[in-house]
Amino acid sequence: MSPRRSLALRTAVSAGALVVSLVALSGCTQITDMINSAQGEPVSAVPAPAASASPAMAFNSQFTYDGSVSLSSDVAQDLELRLDVWAQNPKRTQEWTPDAEKTFGLAVNVHDNRVDEKSVLSQKRRVFISSISITSQTAQTSGQVQSPFQFSADPRTLVPSDTIRSDRGLLLNSFQGGLYVPETMIHGLPADTYGMTLEFAMTVWVEGNANDEASFTQQTVYQYLPIAIFSDEQAAAAAPAPEPTATATP
């Protein structure tokens, strides 16, 4: 999906449940701590003058509209690499303001459309992921551009040790493996930020023919994720009205 694709934004957004065929993980707290430590300290942003009204509604983002998004890349004919990203906290994406800590989850998997999803692994073209990195670029009313969020990791360090892997990385094929990161956090952004784009770079090894060790080739897959950022005033205006208090009948 192109990050420049024009999509209207809705006022109220709620992230639906995302079902991904992945190896179940345990110890999500430890994984989250590892991810946040891998990011290092938040990059200190140069203060920018706050705008009187942030034009967040003009920043097109399917992620903001739906609360989740699925991005697909073909790494070979009928072989699809899929990146799923969803808002974790706050789940209402119109609460994603510059000062708020914004948490999202992600999953990476692969689908060989030449065979049935439930086919055994030897019938599928295997794909291994050896690295994943995320960089960011802000959109600010001041015209400044900054990169406050950065992340890089070997996927094999983010999953349990019994997950299928090799020297080429972590296996991604459906039902046999996959990368699942339950949450990672975007810290504070410059005050005049009205949008940011995350760039995902994933290095993968792709098997040319099923069950053929000699047919692997390496490539890097890029995906871009635009995210709208709202001012505190916009977030407050979009908040759902409180439920009316019931009045007891004498």
Overview features:
250 residues; mainly beta
Structural class, judged by helices and strands?
Answer: mainly beta
Taken together, the total number of domains comes to 1
Q: What Rg is obtained from the alpha carbons, in whole angstroms?
A: 20 Å
Task: Report the count of strand segments.
Answer: 10
What fraction strand? 35-45%
Note poorly predicted spans.
1-31, 37-57
Shape: elongated
On the 0 to 100 scale, the average pLDDT is 81
Name the assembly state.
single chain
The secondary-structure element order is HHEEEEEEEEEEH
Topology:
Elements: H1 28-39, H2 62-66, E1 68-76, E2 79-89, E3 102-112, E4 127-140, E5 151-153, E6 165-166, E7 169-171, E8 179-186, E9 193-207, E10 216-228, H3 232-238
Antiparallel strand pairs: 1-2, 2-3, 3-8, 4-5, 4-7, 4-9, 6-7, 9-10
Describe it.
With 250 residues, the protein is mainly β. The strands form 2 sheets. Strands 4, 5, 6, 7, 9 and 10 form a 6-stranded antiparallel sheet that branches. It has a 4-stranded antiparallel sheet with strand order 1-2-3-8. The chain is built from 3 helices and 10 strands, in the order ααββββββββββα. The model is unreliable at 1-31 and 37-57 (pLDDT under 50). The chain has one domain. It has helices spanning 28-39, 62-66, 232-238, and strands at 68-76, 79-89, 102-112, 127-140, 151-153, 165-166, 169-171, 179-186, 193-207, 216-228. 10% of the residues lie in helices and 36% in strands.
